[in-house]
Specification:
Rossmann fold, six-stranded mixed β-sheet, about 25% strand
């Protein structure tokens, strides 16, 4: 029987629902999902099986106008993911429509997407009326020659099966790229750090989530089958450390508990998680921090 396998890049503006769609397609939580924009930093690959096809998703950082080195590296990673993929899926929020950001993406897609199948997925369709949706679909297809258009709700699962079926038929013929039971090609150390960073992002407000990073410092497999994980939360300023710790350490305790519980569910075993907060002024200008996030430090050069 013929097998198929290929890379699919999910691109779009921040908060368009790429991580939610990826997690739904793969059937496991491999990319962090929060209500805050720009939470996905590295290109996270999730692996979905559909019949005899293996679809390897590249979940890219949201495309936006970069201001800082980290922003520039994230945007470069997103376009790098699109350029390396066999198929590109542009995700657009139905209620936001054809924004300036989407127009910029469409212009760049003309260069990056040459020779690739590019599909349009209009997400969050439950937020607009049918005539608005049809008008938006027409306008977008007039702006760019999409191979196919899908109307979906990643949150509710509507239309996602159709998109997955189309992708499974479109990826190139060839052997599978990963073992059948593997859901992501990220090291568990990085997935664990991402889970903790998600919990921090949900707890903290304003700019702080983008001023911190989480790294898994050590990982010990214990005889009883459990894992002992030590992580460091790097913050840019002294004042940030107090915010992350919270009054009487309440914030860090809540974050640690939530991250540990999610890790235990994901790994299906007991986890002992220890978090430490360190001030590291200028961590956003250290090449090593970028490597830990799967980003290229040089991509941040202005």
């Amino acid at each position: 029987m013929t097998t198929r396998a290929g890379f699919v890049a999910l691109i779009g503006e921040p908060n368009a629902g790429k991580s939610t769609l990826l997690n739904l397609m793969v059937g496991a939580k491999v990319s962090i999902v929060t209500h805050k924009v720009q939470t996905t930093r590295a290109r996270i690959r999730g692996v979905a099986m559909e019949g005899q096809s293996q679809i390897v998703f590249v979940d890219t950082p949201g495309l936006f106008q970069p201001r800082r080195r980290l922003d520039r590296a994230m945007v470069a990673a997103a376009w790098g993911g699109a350029a390396d993929a066999d198929i590109i899926v542009l995700l657009i929020e139905a209620h936001r429509g054809l924004t300036e950001g989407v127009q910029r993406i469409l212009e760049r897609l003309g260069e990056v997407g040459e020779g690739r199948r590019i599909a349009l997925a209009i997400n969050k369709i439950d937020r607009v009326e049918a005539p608005v949706l049809l008008g938006l679909t027409q306008k977008l297809n007039e702006s760019f020659a999409f191979a196919e258009t899908f109307m979906i709700s990643a949150e509710r699962g509507h239309g996602v099966d159709d998109l997955r079926a189309w992708l499974s038929a479109e990826v190139p013929e060839g052997p599978w790229l990963y073992p059948e039971d593997q859901v992501a090609d990220l090291p568990m150390r990085m997935i664990a750090a991402e889970m903790t960073r998600e919990k921090l992002t949900l707890r903290l407000h304003q700019e702080l989530p983008y001023q911190l990073t989480v790294e898994t410092e050590s990982w010990e497999e214990r005889k009883d089958g459990s894992a002992r994980i030590e992580q460091i939360i790097y913050v840019a300023r002294d004042g940030h450390k107090g915010i992350v710790l919270g009054q009487k350490g309440e914030t860090i305790k809540a974050v640690s508990k939530a991250a540990r519980e999610e890790l235990e569910t994901f790994m299906e075993r007991k986890v002992h998680l220890f978090l430490q907060v360190k001030v590291r002024t200028g961590w956003q200008d250290e090449a090593e921090r970028y490597s830990e996030m799967g980003l290229d430090f040089r991509d941040g050069d202005g």
